[in-house]
């Protein structure tokens, strides 16, 4: 291999010497299966060295110092890129001035506009500044995508985006509205005055490695990713580099916190279990149908749930109980909007969140326009092809739940067949989340719900509640970022609890609900969706205290 590459480069050099009437200028020479680069630079720049093979063969691309000196004495400027396919890239995002989340959203929009197709997103991290510590906290993330831009063309595009977003020259490591860095580009190693890939300090920066692991983990899904892992300075690839720094133990302990954006705020979903109180505006819900159809009764119920400890109010106007019929968009909106508008302006709702429970994209769009903070979709987009597009454009967090079929068919015999319910739920739900991500909903805005009571038998529900870590583990095999998403569980008053306890009336299942909620929280649930807020909020506080003791 080494001899073949050496001969190839020597032959390329001879062709170049014959082509130019003067000695050739400084060259970037990169050879990969799909591209060849020949870049001539100004005399002020040193020779750029690009290796598609990693450090093992990088010496093949190091010409003698004399050649470097001779090449750099010339002042010709030409760039020729022969290019036939897209290359995979990883780009880091950071910033700590202005509306950090809006800056990220705008950067993603401009990247797409400039020929960078983002295919995966990391989680979102709020991090303490390093080196220059007297400045605001940073927001950090990373994205993976494909582009036909050459590496230096890509760099130029990213620098233009930074400038358009208000980036100015300042002190090194100082405040900036946006920072875009190329972490990896195809199978190339690049060393130039303008661009170094991988960055020499990548492996010591937790705020870079955390989102990078979210994107790549330890999985190797193609040759390019295998190359990226091979660039790690220690054996074991990127995930081992992260573990050497401290890995997951750093989160929350080393000035780095995983967060989820809601509006203009960043939500730390790991500091406690969050309680979601249920407000059904339907006449036919299984537990409290018809109780809260007037605005006054709904507002009174919300006030009560807030006083009992609810952090989120989940408002639903379409029943999703087994065999529930689907109503029109207009009927759902007629039930929902007057209550949503009244709840939104309640003084008690300050610092609280509103979730709207719907699988209808038209209703979702109107709800978000009228103040919904979260969109809770029991179908994860499977019942309305426009749902993901609506949520992507709205930029609100998206709760994606696992369900087979629809409320009328979800408990059919064929929908209750699982080889391993936790593995199958994780796999099927990931496909829905992946579709959402490709539609423009970043992984850092996704929450997941395994769908207790939806397309599940009694035993399936118990398995899910007892083994939430297994669902995360299965998710992690496909996406580390999605495996870190907040998990919601909603066993409240459901029929399987009545079957176990012999309680045919839904309102008699509160004690059973507390037991299942307790098991779920201790297994890693971040959000609990309940009817009886007071008792379950108390259970959550006790579970949180036990978890703090464990840590």
From TrEMBL:
Catalytically driven reaction(s): (7,8-dihydropterin-6-yl)methyl diphosphate + 4-aminobenzoate = 7,8-dihydropteroate + diphosphate; 6-hydroxymethyl-7,8-dihydropterin + ATP = (7,8-dihydropterin-6-yl)methyl diphosphate + AMP + H(+)
Record field: transmembrane: none
Cofactor: Mg(2+)
Annotated GO MF terms: 2-amino-4-hydroxy-6-hydroxymethyldihydropteridine diphosphokinase activity; ATP binding; dihydropteroate synthase activity; kinase activity; metal ion binding
One CC-aspect GO term: cytoplasm
Keywords, ordered alphabetically: ATP-binding, Folate biosynthesis, Kinase, Magnesium, Metal-binding, Multifunctional enzyme, Nucleotide-binding, Transferase
Location of the Pterin-binding domain: 273-541
Stored Pfam families: HPPK, Pterin_bind
Keyword presence, Methyltransferase: no
An example Gene Ontology biological process: folic acid biosynthetic process
Pathway per the UniProt entry: Cofactor biosynthesis; tetrahydrofolate biosynthesis; 7,8-dihydrofolate from 2-amino-4-hydroxy-6-hydroxymethyl-7,8-dihydropteridine diphosphate and 4-aminobenzoate: step 1/2; Cofactor biosynthesis; tetrahydrofolate biosynthesis; 2-amino-4-hydroxy-6-hydroxymethyl-7,8-dihydropteridine diphosphate from 7,8-dihydroneopterin triphosphate: step 4/4
Record-linked NCBIfam families: DHPS, folK
PANTHER family linked: FOLATE SYNTHESIS PROTEINS, FOLIC ACID SYNTHESIS PROTEIN FOL1
UniProt record similarity statement: In the N-terminal section; belongs to the HPPK family.
Name recorded for this polypeptide: Folate synthesis bifunctional protein
Originating species: Cardamine amara subsp. amara
Lineage: Eukaryota, Viridiplantae, Streptophyta, Embryophyta, Tracheophyta
């Amino acid at each position: 291999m080494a001899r073949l590459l050496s001969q190839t480069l020597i032959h390329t050099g001879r062709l170049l010497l014959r082509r130019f009437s003067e000695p050739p200028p400084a060259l970037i020479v990169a050879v990969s299966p799909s591209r060849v680069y020949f870049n001539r630079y100004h005399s002020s720049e040193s020779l750029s060295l690009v290796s598609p093979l990693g450090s093992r063969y990088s010496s093949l691309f190091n010409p003698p110092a004399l050649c470097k000196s001779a090449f750099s004495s010339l002042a010709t400027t030409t760039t020729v890129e022969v290019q036939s396919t897209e290359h995979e890239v990883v780009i880091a995002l950071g910033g700590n001035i202005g509306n950090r989340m809006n800056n990220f959203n705008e950067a993603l929009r401009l990247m797409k506009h400039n020929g960078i197709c983002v295919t995966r997103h990391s989680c979102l991290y709020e991090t303490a500044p390093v080196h220059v510590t007297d400045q605001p906290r940073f927001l950090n993330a990373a994205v993976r995508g494909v582009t036909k831009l050459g590496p230096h063309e890509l760099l130029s595009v990213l620098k233009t985006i930074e400038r358009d977003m208000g980036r100015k020259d300042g002190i090194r490591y100082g405040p900036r509205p946006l920072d875009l860095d190329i972490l990896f580009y195809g199978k190339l190693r690049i060393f130039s005055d303008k661009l170094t890939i991988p960055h020499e300090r990548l492996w010591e920066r937790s705020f870079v490695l955390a989102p990078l692991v979210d994107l790549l983990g330890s999985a190797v899904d193609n040759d390019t990713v295998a190359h990226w892992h091979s660039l790690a300075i220690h054996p074991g690839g990127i995930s081992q580099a992260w573990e050497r720094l401290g890995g997951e133990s750093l989160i929350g302990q080393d000035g780095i916190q995983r967060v989820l954006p809601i509006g203009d705020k960043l939500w730390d979903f790991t500091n406690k279990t969050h309680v979601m109180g249920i407000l059904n505006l339907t006449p036919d819900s299984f537990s409290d149908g018809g109780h809260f159809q007037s605005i006054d009764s709904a507002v009174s119920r919300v006030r009560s749930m807030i006083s009992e400890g609810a952090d989120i109010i989940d408002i639903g106007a379409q029943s999703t109980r087994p065999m529930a019929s689907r109503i029109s968009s207009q009927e759902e909106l007629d039930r929902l909007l007057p209550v949503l508008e009244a709840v939104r302006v309640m003084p008690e709702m300050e610092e609280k969140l509103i979730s709207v429970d719907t699988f209808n994209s038209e209703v979702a769009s109107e709800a978000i326009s009228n103040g919904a903070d979260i969109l809770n979709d029991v179908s994860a987009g499977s019942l309305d092809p426009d749902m993901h597009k609506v949520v992507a454009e709205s930029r609100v967090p998206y709760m994606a739940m696992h369900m087979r079929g629809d409320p009328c068919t979800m408990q059919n015999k064929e929908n209750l067949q699982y080889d391993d319910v936790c593995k199958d739920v994780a796999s099927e739900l990931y496909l829905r989340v992946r579709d959402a991500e490709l539609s423009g909903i970043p992984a850092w805005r996704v929450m997941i719900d395994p769908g207790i009571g939806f397309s599940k038998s009694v035993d399936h529900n118990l398995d899910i509640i007892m083994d939430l870590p297994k669902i995360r583990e299965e998710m992690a095999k496909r996406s580390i970022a999605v495996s870190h998403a907040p998990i919601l569980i909603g066993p409240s008053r459901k029929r399987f609890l009545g079957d176990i306890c012999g309680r045919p009336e839904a309102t008699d299942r509160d004690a059973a609900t507390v037991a299942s909620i307790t098991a779920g929280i201790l297994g890693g649930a971040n959000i609990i969706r309940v009817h009886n807020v007071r008792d379950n909020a108390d259970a959550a506080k006790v579970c949180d205290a036990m978890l703090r003791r464990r840590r």
